[in-house]
Amino acid sequence: MELTPAAELIANNGDLLIQILLCFPAKSLIRFKSVSKHWLSLISDSQFGAKHSRRNPRPSISGLFLCLRLRDCGTEHTKSVSLQGQANRPTLAFLDCFGVAQFRPKITHSCNGLLLCEYRYSVPSSGHYLVCNPTTKTYTLIPPYRPDFSPGFVPRSSGFLAFDPSKSRGYKVVFLCEYFSKAEKFYVHVYCSERASWKWFRGPDRRQDGLLCRGEVFCGGVIYWLSDEGVVFGFDIDSEKMIENTKIPCVGQIIYFGECDGHLILIQTHMWSTVKLKILEMDKDNNSRWIVKFQVDLEPLLSMGSEFCSYHVLCVVKGELVLDWGGTIISYNLRCQTWNLLSDMAPGESVSHSLAYAAYPYIESLSPL
User: Fold this and answer.
1) What is the layout of strands, in order, in the sheet containing 320-325?
2) What are the sequence ranges of the domains in the chain?
3) How far apart are CA 235 and CA 176, in angstroms?
4) Quick one: which of 207, 217, 214, 206 has its CA closest to 230?
5) Domain 54-362, CATH among 2.120.10.80, 3.30.830.10, 3.40.50.720, 2.60.40.3230
6) Each residue of 258-291: pLDDT tens digit?
7) What's this model's pTM, rounded to 2 decimal places?
8) pLDDT tens-digit map of 205-249
9) Shortest CA distance to 262 belongs to which of 248, 275, 249, 281?
10) CA–CA gap between residue 31 and residue 244 (Å, rounded)
11) What backbone phi and psi angles, to 5 degrees, belong to 284?
């Protein structure tokens, strides 16, 4: 087929072709790799991937990875669910070479297109970690952290990933840990991919902020933890310093702590009803102030069954709640008060809500590792 003069000009001008390709979403670019060896080389280049992620730092969430448990044997596995009706969903099969049997890589956190996964080679062994990009099917191993402190090291949260492609192509892996031999103090351990090294920092005061972490969120360059006493404390990734704590107004049970569209949010049930919710957002200018964004009534969903079933909030995505409603994954539009079926669990499957988080957002990205 003979090329038109315009097409021939583009084909022969590498810089112009790159500028055009940068305008396409990551999913399209993955398909474009099969056009020619030249396009494959351009799109696979790490500098191109970094440029594309910088230009598209906040793509929409296309799906979720769910941590599922099989009732009969108690083992866990990961399944992806599309939020956009896509038939081809990502898997973690490319990581099956790590770990053994039930200790294959499991997701501990997702952040802007990258996943942090933990795997083991035996029951008593300590966990190993890797960071992967499920879109490009690439990964890199995180070197183990060997603290200089004496025994008494207890992680108080799973490994956490902090990644903002609009600022840097590097990422950080963060642990909140406690050392009983150090007067029961919290410490924050940070691995920086650009330095390829670990550092540790003094963390929050255990006596003031509570012992257990009920959740952690990366939002606006800060990792926030929610303690069992309803205190939110944070660690600024850039300055590598703890930030001022804030107490959550306690008017009901907290059932979700997360991020949506660059805002830190939490969801509380009303004291008199488990199907009436309040979605609150932390004021960016005053982190001690929480603003009610939505009052939600899930009672219309009771029509899905003759009896009330338990439910769990999996995530919040731009005006929609994604719920595990008694084994059925649905999205609930907060403004229209309508719902849409996303997925049903297979017989014997259930979402593993024993974890702090059971759903991890999936974003298509070309970010290099």
Assistant:
1) 311-317, 320-325, 328-333, 339-344
2) 5-44, 54-362
3) 10
4) 214
5) 2.120.10.80
6) 898 888 998 988 877 788 899 999 888 887 788 8
7) 0.88
8) 655 545 455 678 888 889 888 877 777 888 899 888 888 777 777
9) 281
10) 46
11) -65, -25
